[in-house]
Amino acid sequence: MTAKNEKIAHPQRSAEDDFEVLFKVQGESYSLFIPMETIKSKSKQDIVQAFRDAFTCSICCSQKASFALCMARCVEGDGKCCDGGATNCD
User: Fold this and answer.
1) Are residues 71 and 56 in contact, defined by beta-carbon separation less than 8 angstroms?
2) Which of 41, 46, 65, 76 has a 20 to 30 Å separation from 4 between CA atoms?
């Protein structure tokens, strides 16, 4: 994930000024919110790595059961891509 295991994305939180990344999986839409204050406080390299991690998680989780739970673990947790966020991990 990001440097020193710092997380900058929040799958289920939004504020008016958050940066939103929208994923559409099998007809359903999911949003990944990144607080602008966090983006401003990170280096460009950390931001690029965090986005790369989020997109890698989204690609893997799109093939797993329960996209939202998978993304929550993958982005906010340990970076593992799992069915329902708990089993059959990659």
Assistant:
1) no
2) 65
